[in-house]
Hints:
The protein has 283 residues and is of the alpha/beta class. The chain has two domains: 9-146, Rossmann fold, CATH 3.40.50.300; 152-282, no CATH class. The chain has helices at residues 9-20, 36-48, 71-75, 77-81, 105-116, 136-140, 152-161, 166-176, 180-187, 195-203, 206-210, 213-217, 220-244, 249-267, 272-282, and strands spanning 25-29, 59-62, 93-97, 122-128, 143-146. The protein has a five-stranded parallel beta sheet with strand order 2-3-4-1-5. Helix 7 packs across helix 8 (166-176), helix 8 packs across helix 9 (180-187) and helix 13 (220-244) runs antiparallel to helix 14. The longest helix has 25 residues, at 220-244. It is globular. The mean pLDDT is 89.
Amino acid sequence: xxxxxxxxxxxxxxxxxxxxxxxxxxxxxxxxxxxxxxxxxxxxxxxxxxxxxxxxxxxxxxxxxxxxxxxxxxxxxxxxxxxxxxxxxxxxxxxxxxxxxxxxxxxxxxxxxxxxxxxxxxxxxxxxxxxxxxxxxxxxxxxxxxxxxxxxxxxxxxxxxxxxxxxxxxxxxxxxxxxxxxxxxxxxxxxxxxxxxxxxxxxxxxxxxxxxxxxxxxxxxxxxxxxxxxxxxxxxxxxxxxxxxxxxxxxxxxxxxxxxxxxxxxxxxxxxxxxxxxxxxxx
Length: 283
């Protein structure tokens, strides 16, 4: 059932064991791009016996709104858990909380009450790339399952089977630093940031770089994607410079420092236009 996802044998076995005997709450952890969202949705489908979650009335998805999941979203679940569900199935309702680390402190405390007294026939699936941002009491009341990132060879083989050329896969891997979601977007042409854009930004003058700010600032998701990809390119390029061309290390260290600073600022909901302006002037 997990063949559509790139998972190791141990991860598949753990997920299958969970489905065979579901706990009231599971916490999926792993680095960005390992497919946590896809795994969470697939678990929800299997638990509910549903093919399309969009039309499933006994499924709820909580996701970040402007960088956080507010307490109101968690409170709204009380009415959902009170729904009467016909049939005799053991699991009647499923909630997926994507990027659970963006739950506000108030929202986490409200969720804790649900975890302490789990509604009968309900399962909560939390997915996070930074479990340390969750309350220890939240983590202790869930079954935690770490999803390891696949190796570069496994990733390449998986995309080759899908029909992509090895050279394109290598390029996407460099840009995405192995992130499956980003690689898929790049290879399918759905990524709004490509290597040409990054090269143009790095090669241009400060004035040239600032011309990109207004367009990116209008789409925070695109801004985040650009900065994330810049961090990945700088990281990989710095590693290559250390082994092949040490004279360029200072340049890539500067790019990595500026891009990680921007990444942190965006994660903290800094003003997108100001963050991008500072980044472009720092490159």
